[in-house]
Amino acid sequence: MTYANILIEHDDAIAVVILNRPKVLNALNRATMDEVVTALEALDHDDAVRCIVLTGSERAFAAGADINEFAAATPVEMLAGYRFQQWERIRQIAKPVIAAVRGFALGGGCELAMLCDMIVAGEGARFGQPEINLGLMPGAGGTQRLTRAVGKARAMEIILTGRQVTAAEAYAMGLITRVVPDEVVVETAKDIARQIAAKAPVAVRLAKDAVLAAFDTTLEVGLDYERKLFYLLFATEDRQEGVRAFLEKRPAAFRGR
Ligand code: CO8
Fold first, then answer.
1. I want to staple 25 with a disulfide (CB 3.0 to 4.6 A). Which of 19, 45, 60, 163 is the partner?
2. What pLDDT, in 10s, does the model give residues 119-153?
3. CATH number at residue 218
4. Co-location of 138 and 24 in the same domain
5. Residue 216's domain spans which residues?
6. Which ranges in the chain belong to alpha helices (H)?
7. 133 C-alpha to center of ligand 1: Å?
Protein backbone atom coordinates (compact mmCIF):
# COMPACT_ATOMS: atom_id res chain seq x y z
CA MET A 1 0.00 0.00 0.00
CA THR A 2 1.37 3.41 -0.91
CA TYR A 3 0.30 6.49 0.99
CA ALA A 4 0.22 10.13 -0.13
CA ASN A 5 -0.04 11.87 3.25
CA ILE A 6 1.88 9.65 5.64
CA LEU A 7 5.17 7.75 5.72
CA ILE A 8 5.84 4.47 7.50
CA GLU A 9 9.22 3.31 8.78
CA HIS A 10 10.05 0.00 10.40
CA ASP A 11 12.77 -0.53 12.98
CA ASP A 12 12.74 -4.16 14.16
CA ALA A 13 9.46 -4.60 16.03
CA ILE A 14 8.70 -0.85 16.05
CA ALA A 15 6.68 0.87 13.33
CA VAL A 16 6.78 4.66 13.02
CA VAL A 17 3.86 6.37 11.27
CA ILE A 18 4.79 9.90 10.19
CA LEU A 19 2.16 12.50 9.30
CA ASN A 20 3.57 14.09 6.17
CA ARG A 21 1.78 17.29 5.10
CA PRO A 22 4.37 19.68 6.53
CA LYS A 23 3.31 22.66 4.35
CA VAL A 24 -0.05 22.79 6.15
CA LEU A 25 1.39 21.75 9.53
CA ASN A 26 -0.02 18.23 9.04
CA ALA A 27 -3.62 19.44 9.02
CA LEU A 28 -5.76 16.33 9.28
CA ASN A 29 -7.87 16.28 6.14
CA ARG A 30 -10.09 13.34 5.43
CA ALA A 31 -7.57 11.61 3.15
CA THR A 32 -4.88 11.81 5.83
CA MET A 33 -7.14 10.39 8.52
CA ASP A 34 -8.16 7.57 6.14
CA GLU A 35 -4.51 6.72 5.65
CA VAL A 36 -3.67 6.93 9.36
CA VAL A 37 -6.51 4.54 10.23
CA THR A 38 -5.67 2.13 7.40
CA ALA A 39 -1.98 2.09 8.36
CA LEU A 40 -2.61 1.65 12.08
CA GLU A 41 -5.02 -1.23 11.47
CA ALA A 42 -2.55 -2.93 9.10
CA LEU A 43 0.27 -2.57 11.65
CA ASP A 44 -2.03 -3.82 14.40
CA HIS A 45 -2.52 -7.03 12.39
CA ASP A 46 1.18 -7.41 11.52
CA ASP A 47 2.75 -9.97 13.87
CA ALA A 48 6.21 -8.50 13.28
CA VAL A 49 5.12 -5.18 14.84
CA ARG A 50 4.80 -4.94 18.60
CA CYS A 51 4.55 -1.20 19.24
CA ILE A 52 3.69 1.84 17.10
CA VAL A 53 5.00 5.41 17.25
CA LEU A 54 2.89 8.16 15.64
CA THR A 55 4.69 11.40 14.88
CA GLY A 56 4.63 14.49 12.67
CA SER A 57 7.25 16.93 11.47
CA GLU A 58 9.50 19.33 13.37
CA ARG A 59 7.05 22.25 13.27
CA ALA A 60 3.91 20.30 13.93
CA PHE A 61 2.56 16.99 15.11
CA ALA A 62 -0.73 18.25 13.61
CA ALA A 63 -2.35 21.72 13.71
CA GLY A 64 -5.85 20.26 13.78
CA ALA A 65 -8.51 19.26 11.33
CA ASP A 66 -7.99 20.77 7.89
CA ILE A 67 -9.91 24.02 8.24
CA ASN A 68 -10.38 24.22 4.46
CA GLU A 69 -12.69 21.22 4.68
CA PHE A 70 -14.82 23.05 7.23
CA ALA A 71 -15.45 26.10 5.03
CA ALA A 72 -18.47 24.71 3.19
CA ALA A 73 -19.33 21.80 5.48
CA THR A 74 -22.91 21.24 6.59
CA PRO A 75 -24.03 19.27 9.64
CA VAL A 76 -25.54 16.61 7.39
CA GLU A 77 -22.26 16.21 5.46
CA MET A 78 -20.34 15.93 8.73
CA LEU A 79 -22.78 13.31 9.94
CA ALA A 80 -22.93 11.42 6.66
CA GLY A 81 -19.16 11.50 6.23
CA TYR A 82 -18.59 9.01 9.05
CA ARG A 83 -15.48 10.97 9.96
CA PHE A 84 -15.71 10.27 13.63
CA GLN A 85 -15.83 6.53 13.05
CA GLN A 86 -12.19 6.88 11.95
CA TRP A 87 -11.33 8.11 15.42
CA GLU A 88 -13.26 5.24 17.01
CA ARG A 89 -11.28 2.77 14.89
CA ILE A 90 -8.01 4.25 16.19
CA ARG A 91 -9.31 3.71 19.71
CA GLN A 92 -9.72 0.02 18.88
CA ILE A 93 -6.04 -0.48 17.98
CA ALA A 94 -4.85 -3.21 20.36
CA LYS A 95 -1.11 -2.55 20.24
CA PRO A 96 0.36 0.39 22.16
CA VAL A 97 0.57 3.62 20.17
CA ILE A 98 2.96 6.32 21.40
CA ALA A 99 2.58 9.89 20.12
CA ALA A 100 5.91 11.66 19.56
CA VAL A 101 4.99 15.36 19.47
CA ARG A 102 7.16 18.17 18.15
CA GLY A 103 5.71 21.63 17.54
CA PHE A 104 1.95 22.16 17.39
CA ALA A 105 -0.58 19.59 18.58
CA LEU A 106 -3.74 21.66 18.26
CA GLY A 107 -7.43 20.86 17.92
CA GLY A 108 -7.76 17.49 16.20
CA GLY A 109 -3.96 17.20 16.47
CA CYS A 110 -4.15 17.38 20.26
CA GLU A 111 -7.10 14.97 20.18
CA LEU A 112 -5.13 12.53 18.01
CA ALA A 113 -2.19 12.67 20.44
CA MET A 114 -4.57 12.08 23.37
CA LEU A 115 -6.04 9.10 21.53
CA CYS A 116 -2.60 7.50 21.67
CA ASP A 117 -1.59 5.59 24.80
CA MET A 118 1.31 7.87 25.74
CA ILE A 119 2.63 11.23 24.62
CA VAL A 120 6.34 12.04 24.44
CA ALA A 121 6.82 15.73 23.67
CA GLY A 122 9.67 18.05 22.77
CA GLU A 123 10.36 21.13 24.88
CA GLY A 124 9.00 23.31 22.07
CA ALA A 125 5.72 21.38 21.71
CA ARG A 126 2.46 23.29 22.13
CA PHE A 127 -0.85 21.66 22.97
CA GLY A 128 -4.25 23.27 22.70
CA GLN A 129 -7.89 23.10 21.69
CA PRO A 130 -8.32 26.32 19.67
CA GLU A 131 -11.65 25.33 18.07
CA ILE A 132 -13.38 28.00 20.17
CA ASN A 133 -11.57 30.63 18.04
CA LEU A 134 -13.40 29.24 14.98
CA GLY A 135 -16.80 29.34 16.68
CA LEU A 136 -16.51 25.60 17.20
CA MET A 137 -15.61 23.26 20.02
CA PRO A 138 -13.56 20.05 20.20
CA GLY A 139 -15.31 17.27 18.28
CA ALA A 140 -12.93 14.30 18.32
CA GLY A 141 -12.79 13.61 22.03
CA GLY A 142 -11.16 16.79 23.37
CA THR A 143 -13.79 17.65 25.96
CA GLN A 144 -13.72 14.09 27.29
CA ARG A 145 -10.09 12.99 27.08
CA LEU A 146 -8.54 16.31 28.11
CA THR A 147 -10.91 16.54 31.09
CA ARG A 148 -10.11 12.99 32.17
CA ALA A 149 -6.38 13.71 31.80
CA VAL A 150 -6.06 17.10 33.49
CA GLY A 151 -9.30 17.62 35.43
CA LYS A 152 -12.26 19.95 34.93
CA ALA A 153 -10.72 23.24 36.03
CA ARG A 154 -7.77 23.10 33.65
CA ALA A 155 -9.69 21.50 30.77
CA MET A 156 -12.29 24.28 30.97
CA GLU A 157 -9.65 26.97 30.72
CA ILE A 158 -7.86 25.32 27.80
CA ILE A 159 -11.07 24.60 25.86
CA LEU A 160 -12.89 27.89 26.58
CA THR A 161 -9.92 30.22 25.98
CA GLY A 162 -8.25 28.18 23.22
CA ARG A 163 -4.85 29.07 24.63
CA GLN A 164 -1.76 27.01 23.88
CA VAL A 165 -0.13 25.01 26.66
CA THR A 166 3.64 24.44 26.72
CA ALA A 167 5.10 20.94 27.01
CA ALA A 168 6.30 21.72 30.54
CA GLU A 169 2.77 22.77 31.56
CA ALA A 170 1.26 19.72 29.85
CA TYR A 171 3.68 17.51 31.76
CA ALA A 172 2.86 19.18 35.08
CA MET A 173 -0.85 18.63 34.36
CA GLY A 174 -0.36 14.92 33.68
CA LEU A 175 -1.35 15.20 30.01
CA ILE A 176 1.92 13.80 28.70
CA THR A 177 4.40 11.08 29.63
CA ARG A 178 7.73 12.84 29.18
CA VAL A 179 9.30 16.10 27.97
CA VAL A 180 12.66 15.84 26.20
CA PRO A 181 14.77 18.06 23.91
CA ASP A 182 13.05 18.43 20.53
CA GLU A 183 15.85 16.60 18.69
CA VAL A 184 15.38 13.38 20.64
CA VAL A 185 11.56 13.16 20.73
CA VAL A 186 11.18 10.38 18.16
CA GLU A 187 14.18 8.45 19.50
CA THR A 188 12.80 8.66 23.06
CA ALA A 189 9.38 7.42 21.90
CA LYS A 190 11.10 4.60 20.02
CA ASP A 191 13.14 3.76 23.10
CA ILE A 192 9.95 3.37 25.17
CA ALA A 193 8.44 1.39 22.29
CA ARG A 194 11.48 -0.94 22.27
CA GLN A 195 11.08 -1.61 25.98
CA ILE A 196 7.41 -2.50 25.43
CA ALA A 197 8.23 -4.60 22.35
CA ALA A 198 10.47 -6.81 24.50
CA LYS A 199 7.56 -7.73 26.80
CA ALA A 200 4.98 -10.49 26.30
CA PRO A 201 2.65 -9.17 23.56
CA VAL A 202 -0.54 -10.70 24.96
CA ALA A 203 0.17 -9.26 28.41
CA VAL A 204 0.86 -5.85 26.85
CA ARG A 205 -2.38 -6.01 24.89
CA LEU A 206 -4.53 -6.98 27.85
CA ALA A 207 -2.83 -4.47 30.16
CA LYS A 208 -3.56 -1.67 27.65
CA ASP A 209 -7.14 -2.86 27.42
CA ALA A 210 -7.52 -2.85 31.21
CA VAL A 211 -6.07 0.66 31.62
CA LEU A 212 -8.42 2.02 28.94
CA ALA A 213 -11.35 0.30 30.66
CA ALA A 214 -10.66 2.47 33.73
CA PHE A 215 -12.11 5.43 31.81
CA ASP A 216 -15.36 3.68 30.98
CA THR A 217 -16.41 1.93 34.11
CA THR A 218 -16.82 1.95 37.88
CA LEU A 219 -13.94 0.89 40.14
CA GLU A 220 -15.74 -2.32 41.10
CA VAL A 221 -16.43 -3.40 37.53
CA GLY A 222 -12.93 -2.32 36.47
CA LEU A 223 -11.27 -4.37 39.20
CA ASP A 224 -13.34 -7.39 38.23
CA TYR A 225 -12.37 -6.93 34.57
CA GLU A 226 -8.70 -6.59 35.53
CA ARG A 227 -8.82 -9.79 37.57
CA LYS A 228 -10.33 -11.77 34.69
CA LEU A 229 -7.68 -10.57 32.26
CA PHE A 230 -5.05 -11.42 34.90
CA TYR A 231 -6.40 -14.99 35.15
CA LEU A 232 -6.45 -15.23 31.36
CA LEU A 233 -2.72 -14.52 31.16
CA PHE A 234 -2.08 -17.67 33.21
CA ALA A 235 -3.15 -19.58 30.09
CA THR A 236 -0.32 -18.14 27.98
CA GLU A 237 3.00 -19.78 27.14
CA ASP A 238 4.66 -16.41 27.66
CA ARG A 239 3.55 -16.35 31.30
CA GLN A 240 5.23 -19.76 31.79
CA GLU A 241 8.34 -18.52 29.98
CA GLY A 242 8.43 -15.25 31.97
CA VAL A 243 8.20 -16.98 35.33
CA ARG A 244 10.64 -19.75 34.32
CA ALA A 245 13.17 -17.20 33.00
CA PHE A 246 13.01 -15.27 36.28
CA LEU A 247 13.62 -18.41 38.32
CA GLU A 248 16.45 -19.48 35.98
CA LYS A 249 17.97 -15.98 36.17
CA ARG A 250 17.95 -15.41 32.39
CA PRO A 251 16.14 -12.95 30.09
CA ALA A 252 12.72 -14.16 28.93
CA ALA A 253 12.13 -14.86 25.24
CA PHE A 254 8.47 -13.99 24.67
CA ARG A 255 6.72 -15.31 21.57
CA GLY A 256 3.26 -13.82 21.80
CA ARG A 257 1.56 -17.11 22.65
N1 CO8 B 1 -6.00 23.52 8.52
C2 CO8 B 1 -5.56 23.89 7.31
N3 CO8 B 1 -4.41 24.58 7.11
C4 CO8 B 1 -3.67 24.87 8.19
C5 CO8 B 1 -4.07 24.52 9.50
C6 CO8 B 1 -5.29 23.80 9.65
N7 CO8 B 1 -5.73 23.38 10.83
N8 CO8 B 1 -3.13 24.99 10.36
C9 CO8 B 1 -2.19 25.59 9.64
N10 CO8 B 1 -2.50 25.54 8.32
C11 CO8 B 1 -1.74 26.08 7.20
C12 CO8 B 1 -1.82 27.58 7.14
O13 CO8 B 1 -3.00 28.00 6.46
C14 CO8 B 1 -0.57 27.93 6.37
O15 CO8 B 1 -0.80 27.68 4.99
P16 CO8 B 1 -0.24 28.76 3.88
O17 CO8 B 1 1.27 28.69 4.02
O18 CO8 B 1 -0.74 28.20 2.59
O19 CO8 B 1 -0.79 30.07 4.28
C20 CO8 B 1 0.43 26.90 6.85
O21 CO8 B 1 -0.34 25.82 7.41
C22 CO8 B 1 1.36 27.40 7.92
O23 CO8 B 1 0.56 27.98 8.95
P24 CO8 B 1 0.78 29.48 9.50
O25 CO8 B 1 1.35 30.35 8.44
O26 CO8 B 1 -0.52 29.89 10.12
O27 CO8 B 1 1.91 29.21 10.62
P28 CO8 B 1 2.13 30.06 11.96
O29 CO8 B 1 3.41 29.54 12.52
O30 CO8 B 1 1.99 31.50 11.73
O31 CO8 B 1 0.91 29.61 12.92
C32 CO8 B 1 -0.58 28.05 13.97
C33 CO8 B 1 0.81 28.28 13.34
C34 CO8 B 1 -0.72 28.83 15.27
C35 CO8 B 1 -0.67 26.54 14.26
C36 CO8 B 1 -1.68 28.49 12.97
O37 CO8 B 1 -1.42 27.88 11.72
C38 CO8 B 1 -3.08 28.08 13.39
O39 CO8 B 1 -3.64 28.74 14.25
N40 CO8 B 1 -3.61 27.02 12.76
C41 CO8 B 1 -4.96 26.57 13.04
C42 CO8 B 1 -5.03 25.84 14.35
C43 CO8 B 1 -6.48 25.45 14.64
O44 CO8 B 1 -7.35 26.28 14.78
N45 CO8 B 1 -6.71 24.13 14.77
C46 CO8 B 1 -8.03 23.60 15.09
C47 CO8 B 1 -8.75 23.25 13.83
S48 CO8 B 1 -10.40 22.72 14.14
C49 CO8 B 1 -10.22 21.11 14.68
O50 CO8 B 1 -9.14 20.60 14.77
C51 CO8 B 1 -11.45 20.36 15.04
C52 CO8 B 1 -11.18 18.86 15.17
C53 CO8 B 1 -12.46 18.11 15.20
C54 CO8 B 1 -12.31 16.66 14.69
C55 CO8 B 1 -12.17 16.57 13.22
C56 CO8 B 1 -12.94 15.46 12.60
C57 CO8 B 1 -13.58 15.84 11.32
1. 60
2. 999 999 999 999 999 999 999 999 999 999 999 99
3. 1.10.12.10
4. yes
5. 201-247
6. 30-44, 75-80, 83-91, 108-115, 142-150, 152-161, 167-173, 185-197, 201-213, 219-233, 237-247
7. 12
SS3 for 12? coil
Rounded CA separation 177/120 (Å): 6
Identify the residue whose C-alpha is closest to ligand 1 atom 14.
24
Prediction pTM value: 0.96
Which of 5, 21, 25 has most ligand 1 atoms within 8 Å of its beta carbon, as the pocket-test mutant?
25
Band of residue 110 on the pLDDT scale cut at 50, 70, 90: very high
- Residue 254 inside a domain? The answer is no
Concatenate the DSSP letters of all residues of 26-46 into one string.
T-B-HHHHHHHHHHHHHHHT-
Number of domains in the chain: 2
Instruction: Say if ligand 1 is within 6 A of residue 140 CB.
Output: yes
31 and 91 share a domain?
yes
In this predicted model, what pLDDT tens digit does every residue of 10-40 receive, in sequence order? 999 999 999 999 999 999 999 999 999 999 9
Residue 61 Cβ < 6 Å to ligand 1: no
